[in-house]
Amino acid sequence: MRGLFITFEGPDGGGKSTQIRLLNEWLTARGHEVLVTREPGGCKVAEEIRGLILDIRHTSMTPVTEALLYAAARAQHVEEVIAPALEAGKTVICDRFLDSSLAYQGAGRKLGFTTVADMNRHATHGLVPEITFLCRINTELSRLRVWGRSVPDRLESEKTDFQDRVLRGFDELARRYPERIKEIDAGRDIQVVYDEIIGHVRALLERREHGA
Ligand code: TYD
User: Fold this and answer.
1) I need a surface site. Which of 43, 90, 114, 129 has the fewest CB within 10 A?
2) How far is the CA of 159 from the centre of ligand 1 (A)?
3) Is the Cβ–Cβ distance between 3 and 92 less than 8 Å?
4) How far is the CA of 39 from the centre of ligand 1 (A)?
5) What is the pLDDT of residues 88-119, one digit of tens each?
6) pLDDT tens digit string along 128-161?
7) % helix, strand, coil for the chain, step of 5
């Protein structure tokens, strides 16, 4: 059976990494072979592209260039890392995927979902996660977490109206794909958030087992 593809999405500072680590542990303890990866990045070429995109000095980068670079990083990552792992039956947990491009470049940079989806067709070959956790926290909390953590990168330093458009982009995606995208209020206690995520994954695994 093909491996399970899980993604985590949401605004910056939404507490994705903790939940990814916990889910990895939960799945591994149940005998799944898990690969945790992230975008942009996840392999050498894509990590190099990541450095280019997030570099705070690149203030002149156009939205189209930015979107194509994310797509280029994704093309390499899918072909080199994600697709082979899924074919080998592994469970892949990816920190951000195409939904981030739709929310950040499509909504945030105003390129539109259709344009960004088109740009990504050659990158994903139609690969869609089976389940996506959209980790939300309110914008203020997100900003505090990002600024308290380290020096913000180029996208994190964007103004609040950009961040608001990104959030609305994620809202719209959740509305369009309610079956796949599970909205998680990540501002709550870690354990409560974890229980909710595990509940969804457990249900998904049961459905897969019964061929539904
Ligand atoms: P990262 O440090 O990984 O952010 P986080 O830890 O919050 O996930 O930086 C990735 C940044 O790139 C983040 O601001 C979201 C943005 N991004 C896009 O704009 N488009 C994309 O397609 C992806 C994958 C990320």
Assistant:
1) 114
2) 15
3) yes
4) 7
5) 999 999 999 999 999 999 999 999 999 999 99
6) 999 999 998 876 666 676 667 677 777 777 778 8
7) 55, 10, 30
Reported for 49-52, long-range contacts at CB under 8 A and 24+ positions apart, including other chains, are 49/73, 49/76
Closest atom, ligand 1, to C-alpha of 12? 7
List the end-to-end C-alpha distance of the chain, in Å, as a whole number.
13
User: What global pTM score does this model have?
Assistant: 0.93
Return the SS3 of 32: coil
The residue among 118, 142, 140, 121 whose CA lies nearest residue 10 is 142
Nearest residue by C-alpha to atom 23 in ligand 1: 100
Which pair of tokens denotes residue 139? Answer: 């914008």
Sketch the domain layout of the chain as residue ranges.
5-209
